[in-house]
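Hi all, posting the design record for the shared folder.

TITLE: backbone redesign
STEP: 1 of 1
STRUCTURE INPUT:
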């Protein structure tokens, strides 16, 4: 084909053919078909999204409103975050993890997802790979793919509970591996890395130079203590470690879009520059609300944790009555029940049936892993009466 023929062909092609290959197969999380069907039904209890039904409490909203009334509607010049939130975050993390976490090591981002993307973009690109623990929130696989890197899933083992095989995880790494990514507590399984597993990951990183990216967004929703085992207390300032966090879950602030990334001090300037070029920072009044959450929010965190744990007990008690449901051991953390259906290779049809018969919206396991297709995710961060009603409906429909 001549050069002119190629030009003509390019002009005749549609716009879609001109975008990056990594973008062409991207799609949003595929609960859409169920959501469309749910819109035509009455009295649906939607439990498919990772979001509670608690409105952000007044003390957080009031702090943001006060900042607005004071005129905090301009750029925040420091891309690492407003000074008030930086100080609150330093105090919070240092207290929580029992050691000073240098203020220069944390950068505020508009949401945990933005923090996650910056962490990945800092180290991964075409020709590299990121190994991640699965089943996993689908944003992780797609964010790695979006950067042009190869996502490599390493599945948790499952018998009556989810377990991590560290040897299998490390064996999946090679000379092109830039990072191991894990969520702990996990979305969707609730699996939580132990302190010993965190130490093994850190030792592997020090030996190989491979980064550890620890998504600790659900770290405060942990039922065995005040905070789940974290990579931060055991890592030194310049270890190749990054921790992702968000105000969304433990402070009921999903719609605020504010989170943070904790990273080595030596990359702070680069993370700030990436923040500037990707989004130019997080609004000042949003950061004022986030600072109030850290400074005054411990009773709220405890309340949310207790509500989720109580709701999990209700779910397990109810669903245990259905012989076709496979219930793993209760999760150590997070805000989900992730249960299997015996003899069902793909739970998507079951989710449709539950929606139709019980008017309860759930997320099929295929979204999270090719190995968890018989599982269903149920968000349990709801008003307890609402959740109890959903469980009763499911038991009637499935039992």
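Okay, here is what came back for every position:
SEQUENCE:
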């Amino acid at each position: 084909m001549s050069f002119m023929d190629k030009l003509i062909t390019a002009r005749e092609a549609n716009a879609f053919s001109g975008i990056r290959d990594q973008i062409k197969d991207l799609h949003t999380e595929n609960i859409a078909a169920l959501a469309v069907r749910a819109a035509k039904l009455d009295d649906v209890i939607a439990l498919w999204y990772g979001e509670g039904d608690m409105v952000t409490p007044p003390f957080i909203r009031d702090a943001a409103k006060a900042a607005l009334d004071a005129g905090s509607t301009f750029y925040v010049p420091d891309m690492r975050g407003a000074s008030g939130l930086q100080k609150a975050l330093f105090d919070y993390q240092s207290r929580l993890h029992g050691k000073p976490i240098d203020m220069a090591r944390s950068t505020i981002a508009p949401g945990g997802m933005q923090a996650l993307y910056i962490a990945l973009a800092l180290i991964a690109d075409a020709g590299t790979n990121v190994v991640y623990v699965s089943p996993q929130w689908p944003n992780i696989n797609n964010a790695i793919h979006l950067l042009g890197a190869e996502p490599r899933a390493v599945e948790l083992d499952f018998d009556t509970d989810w377990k991590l095989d560290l040897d299998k995880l490390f064996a999946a790494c090679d000379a092109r591996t830039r990072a191991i990514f894990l969520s702990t507590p996990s979305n969707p399984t609730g699996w939580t890395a132990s302190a010993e597993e965190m130490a093994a990951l850190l030792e592997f990183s020090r030996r190989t130079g491979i980064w550890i990216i620890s998504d600790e967004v659900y770290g405060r929703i942990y039922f065995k203590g005040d905070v789940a085992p974290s990579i931060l207390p055991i890592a030194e300032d310049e270890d190749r470690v990054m921790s992702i966090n968000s105000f969304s879950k433990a402070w009921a602030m999903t719609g605020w879009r504010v989170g943070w990334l904790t990273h080595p001090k030596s990359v702070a300037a680069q993370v700030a520059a990436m923040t500037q070029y990707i989004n130019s920072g997080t609004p000042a009044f949003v950061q004022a609300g986030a600072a109030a959450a850290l400074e005054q929010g411990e009773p709220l965190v405890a309340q949310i944790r207790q509500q989720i744990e109580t709701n999990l007990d209700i779910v397990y008690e109810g669903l245990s009555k259905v012989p076709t449901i496979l219930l793993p051991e209760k999760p150590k953390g997070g805000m989900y029940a992730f249960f299997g259906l015996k003899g069902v290779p793909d739970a998507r049809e079951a989710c449709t049936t539950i929606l139709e018969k019980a008017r309860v919206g759930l997320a099929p396991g295929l979204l999270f892993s090719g190995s968890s297709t018989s599982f269903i995710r149920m968000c349990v961060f709801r008003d307890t009466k609402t959740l109890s009603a959903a469980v009763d409906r499911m038991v009637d429909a499935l039992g």
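COMMENT: The mean pLDDT is 94.
Let me know if anyone wants the other runs.
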